[in-house]
Amino acid sequence: IRMNPLVAPGILEHLVGLEDAVKELANTWHPEDPRYRADVLRQTMMSLSYSYFAYFHATPEHPDWAPLWNPVYTLQPNPDDIYLYSPIRGDLRYKVSGNRGTVKILSFTTQRHMSGMVDDIAQIGAHNEIDDQDIAFAPNGDFELVFSAERPDGHTGNWAPIHPEATGMMVRLRSYDWENEIDPTLSIECLDPVPAKPRLAPGEIIARIREMAKFPARKTRSYYRLQNGVKERVGFNVFEPVRMKGALAKQVYWPACFQLEEDEALIIETDLPERRPYWNIQLNDPYFNALEYVYRLSSLNGHTARASSDGRFRAVIALEDPGVPNWLDPAGYREGGIYGRWFDCDTNPTPVIRRVKLAELRHHLPADTPVVTPQQRAEQLRRRVRACQRRRRW
Q1: In this structure, which long-range contacts are made by residues 120-126, counting pairs with CB atoms below 8 Å and at least 24 apart in sequence?
Q2: What is the pTM of this model?
Q3: Could you read off the pLDDT of 236-279 as tens digits, one per residue?
Q4: Confidence of residue 3 (pLDDT cuts 50, 70, 90)
Q5: Which of 233, 255, 305, 360 has the most CB atoms around its CB within 10 Å?
Q6: Alpha helices, DSSP H, located in the chain
Q7: Are strands 66-67 and 81-87 parallel, antiparallel or unpaired?
Q8: For residue 133, which of 304, 277, 348 has the smallest C-alpha distance?
Q9: Sign (positive/negative) of CA torsion 364, 338, 170, 160?
């Protein structure tokens, strides 16, 4: 068999793009810290492992769901969300069908390019979004939803438009009550006649491997920029609300960068909107990854959070369990990110952060703040682990 000249004998020759991801260490908060270097190496491998799904799993002509962000691929997923992705083409027609389940929100976003798949993030753009409020379901939750550039002649069922430049579809399965809500079951199929899925030619395989190697650097560049921007504009322990363009137009984010010492605690305090269909708060590491959220209590939502007796929400970030409700565990990080979300709420209050000594924490909380015992905390974590593991994550 004659060797294709594009197929180098050593695979590392096709993975040189990984070095660009490691160079992004210079854009972290402490590039001289060996722990940061190790974290960036781990993050690079994480993104590389995900990129196989992005480049080899499915095609626009032969769509299929791949996992997107989740407890393994942790570049800023919402812990309440399960994300799915399929490549699509704007000139083809697709049908998504299945059962809605009972999750809090089910949404579909079609867009041009996905983060990590192009060098210029300005090329990425969400075109159309449809959620369960706009979809008709059978009494048992079954549904069909057609995506196409124009509504098919005679079609009276669920339909959503696709922009001619669309290249991908992203799905969010957003859960409030991880223990009891049922995730949707979904399929996607191309409605247009297409050839059988082909065997890839050697040159195409190599081209996709090289794109895989570029993926980690592209991801870190865009996400470091987001988190570093918050720190540069408002510093540590200050929230900077923002409404993103495109996807999730109903949602207001409230990001911040946190910082504390081992003997300190951060108290996050806010009013709660009167109408609040969904809201949450989570902790990220300094590289914009969601902190471990299966075996750590690093996120809360409107179902799991407990309001104080005055109706306000108070959470506490501390490196050790402070024995109060709404502990957010930073998993050993003294610096990192915070992301909160108000979804379709009637108001969007901006929380505040107070930095206090851990030993004096209760002096800064309402007098009737309950005590959470170690036994209660252990049970809370056990239930969280079971609930998260029972969700579809990949």
Answers
A1: 121/221, 121/222, 125/246, 126/245, 126/246, 126/247
A2: 0.94
A3: 999 999 987 666 778 999 999 999 999 999 999 999 999 999 99
A4: very low
A5: 255
A6: 18-23, 34-52, 202-234, 374-389
A7: antiparallel
A8: 277
A9: positive
